[in-house]
Design brief:
Length: 110
Amino acid sequence: MIRDRDAWLELWKQLSSRQFRPPPLPEIDFSREMLIVVAMGERNTGGFSIIVDGVYERDKKLEVVVKSTSPGKNCMLSQAFTQPVDIIRVQKSDYPVVFRETNVSNDCGL
């Protein structure tokens, strides 16, 4: 959860550190908005992804539904390090955040 510009700037530096010409920092109005960030960390092949599938206010909590996908058996994968991440902008809330994650494995079959 990113709720201020300093934290956003620090994360943006980390995310764009491997780019030759990093894009400019997207402007966020933190008086009205905040960011939800989900990441899988570094993986040693392609075929992984993570997305925020929904955000709901429920019982005075902000519930973030996350879907993680990993490659299954017989998948042809790029042999490169990846760092799957998803960032979404939502209306500012002081509710505590609860993450609900679903893990899916893609079976590529042969």
